[in-house]
Amino acid sequence: MLRNAAEKLALTVPEAALLSSLGQTSLYKAIKEGRLRIRKYGTRTIITRADLASFLEGLPDATKQPEL
């Protein structure tokens, strides 16, 4: 039985991009910088929902305005 991306435990980068409303390029950049943890299974790159949520929670809070 197939599940949609919202129900999966692990996501591909394109699925994580759709679920997070971020672009794939932004996710690949975060992966390269070590800010978003990935798992590898053979050649497949997967992101757990927990790692994606942790990455998103760690993004800066936009309600705080920088002082000029």
TrEMBL record:
InterPro entries: HTH_17. This is Helix-turn-helix domain-containing protein. Residues 11-58 form the Helix-turn-helix domain. It comes from the Bacteria. It holds the Pfam family HTH_17.
